[in-house]
User: Fold this.
Amino acid sequence: SLALQPEIPFKDWSTVFRPQTWSFLVLPVEYAFAFKWWLLMFMVMVSCYFFTLRVLHKKVFSILLGIAAGLSPFLLWWYQTAVFVCIAYGFWMLILGMRIMNDEPVTFVKNKRYSDTLHILALAFVATCLGLVLYPPFQIPIVIVAVLFMVGYVLHKRFNEQLDLKLLARRVGFIAIAAVIAGIIGGGFI
Assistant:
């Protein structure tokens, strides 16, 4: 089935979770291919930039690191969808996980419940996108690193910031809900 090939664009419900192929739905093939080709590098650069900016709060360094990540010889050697999007989705999952743990609101949403729901759905979407890449050699290490980073972040919140255990459990529960949603969608795909 074409659904098992993340490089090939096709019309199927799972295309929703493959943003790198959306351009094929609206552009001529040559333009769509060029768009996808450059989108892969752009996704890595932007996600690395925002993650680094969030962690280090240094704009110029974040820009340089984002460019370096997108242009790294290792990635350029492979230049496959699976490699680039796995890394980008890993960064986006970490950013969303940190936003959930920090209880940050979505700026354009006034209601706290809606804001939390949007964060959960965004994390579930990105996790599903990562899951449907179907390239375990990159998915597994990225998931391991993301999980270990988030465990460290939760421990930091608990012990360094003295976050209440009940509030901490609620926020971790939001991340778990996103993981369950992604798992259900992935199971439906399989």
The mean pLDDT is 94. Residues 29-56 form the longest helix (28 residues). The CA atoms of residues 20 and 174 lie 27 Å apart.
